[in-house]
User: Fold this.
Amino acid sequence: MTDQAFVKVVLVTGGSSGIGEAICRRLAAEGHRVYGTGRKLDLQPVGYRMIPMDITNDESVEQGVQLVLEEAGRIDVVVNNAGMGIQGPAEDISPELALHVIDTNVMGAHRVCRAVLPGMRERGQGLVIHITSLAANYGLPFRGFYSASKAALERYAEAQRMELAPFGVHVVTLQPGEYRTGIAAARARPASIGPHYADTYDRVMRVLDGSLHYSRDPDEVAVKVSRLIHRSSPYGVHFAAHGVQRLSVVLKKVLPSRLFERLMMRHYR
Ligand SMILES: NC(=O)c1ccc[n+]([C@@H]2O[C@H](COP(=O)([O-])OP(=O)(O)OC[C@H]3O[C@@H](n4cnc5c(N)ncnc54)[C@H](OP(=O)(O)O)[C@@H]3O)[C@@H](O)[C@H]2O)c1
Assistant:
């Protein structure tokens, strides 16, 4: 029998594929009461429930959170995982497309927080895990708006952590490196790429999409989430990354920016 104090009610946005699905599966297998969300609901979840939610829509988020609160009575942990990628030279990306990515990756998490936090504050406990990215630490060439959205979410979380600490609500970020999910195939792209960028862009994207790191199992991220939800006082920023990817965060902190950027472009050669 599962210890009732151990069991958490967990809401995972973007539970329909990739990292979110791995988190839902692992936490459900561990005995937690898990609700995954998504726009696509064709998945057959085992041990957890999928509910409809579009994080770019206020009403849809409120309805999804309300459904969990009515059924489970509380939300102990929210994992703001739903997100999307974008690729293309910044100059070729329309403001509308960039805003769509920021609306999903930043405002989506904000909408979910606005719906979930009142309950957590009233109960004087809760954990918010924002899935950001290593890309939050530096501008990735031809994925600038992705880096910008994840950096924005990191800073949002940092401020939120200080605001919510007096209420017993913890806020952490988890920065994954590259994992084998649907994110690369689903990246938003501009309608056309200017000929002046074409050579470098094609080369960078070939190296990126061929990256061996994209073969890593997203369950590694789920293991990190599982550990986080049982920490009584988790520290703020966590990583799920290996080797050169993890090292890149350290190098970004210690190297002069010109040298770091040269190394970055050499990696993509
Ligand atoms: N895979 C990686 O290498 C990697 C690295 C660093 C960070 N991340 C981050 O990890 C998170 C999960 O990505 P993933 O790699 O697992 O990608 P994925 O397989 O493409 O999954 C993305 C998830 O987000 C959901 N989603 C997207 N837009 C949504 C919207 N408007 N409303 C509701 N749900 C939405 C999708 O669900 P529906 O389509 O059903 O709505 C899907 O479940 C993202 O925040 C991503 O930035 C991934």
In short: The beta strands are 9-12, 33-38, 49-52, 77-80, 126-131, 169-176, 237-240. The two ends are 55 Å apart (CA to CA). DSSP finds eight helices and seven strands in the chain.
